[in-house]
Amino acid sequence: GHQQLAAVMKEKDALYAKYDAGTATDADGERLGILEGEFADMSGWDAEYQAAELLSGLGITEDKHYSLMSDLGASEKVRVLLAQALFGNPDVLLLDEPTYMADLDFSKITMYPGNYSFWYESSQLALRQRQDVNKKTEDKRKELEEFVRRFSANASKSKQATSRQKLLQKLTLEEIKPSSRRYPYIAFKPEREAGNQLLSVDGITKLVDGHPVLKNVSFSLDKGDK
């Protein structure tokens, strides 16, 4: 789960144990004050409630929240592990097939018939278009607000001001949720540059339960081969 929060709680408990034993020092008191501040910043007092909310949201009934993992079914164990991962508020989660139970029953999906570059360019274009629409809407809102402010008390233009007030109430801005990450990217950096020959196999034979699956296989794999 939230590893940093867990570490703070563990250190806090150890320091409070020293106070109970009468062996705490002034330095321990100062450290405890720092830990209490970090604990509060990470909403530590709400941790149990947040954990229960996550478990319930993933289908773990309240009567099982304090059960041992060994007492849970296979699918329930996966849900608990998923709740543990979510509890740390990660920016990105890479999930595989065992998390199918978290799929939404209904929602909206946008299809991009192309590769990653096409998706990125298309999604950025759509984002800019939504931002432009929001900017125009905001400019219109300011224009209407200024008119209403100036002429709402003017008898000759009160009807126009009322009409613009109604238009103002109908204006809506589309919510654009900011991404929590910049340039989502996974990279594996090798310790050294690979040579031209990546793999060489010579006369390999393999038996599984007494049945041959490979017999005297030889091949080489060079850089650039597919």
Automatic annotation (TrEMBL):
Coiled-coil stretches noted in the UniProt entry, renumbered to this chain: none
Signal peptide: none
Alphabetical list of SUPFAM superfamilies matching this protein: P-loop containing nucleoside triphosphate hydrolases
Keyword annotations of the record: ATP-binding, Nucleotide-binding
Domain ABC transporter span(s) in chain numbering: 30-99
Entry-linked InterPro entries: ABC_tran_Xtn, ABC_transporter-like_ATP-bd, ABCF_ATPase, P-loop_NTPase
Domain ABC-transporter extension: 103-188
GO molecular function, one term: ATP binding
Organism: Tanacetum cinerariifolium (Dalmatian daisy)
UniProt-recorded name of the protein: ABC transporter domain-containing protein
Record keyword Membrane present: no
Highest classification ranks of the organism: Eukaryota, Viridiplantae, Streptophyta, Embryophyta, Tracheophyta
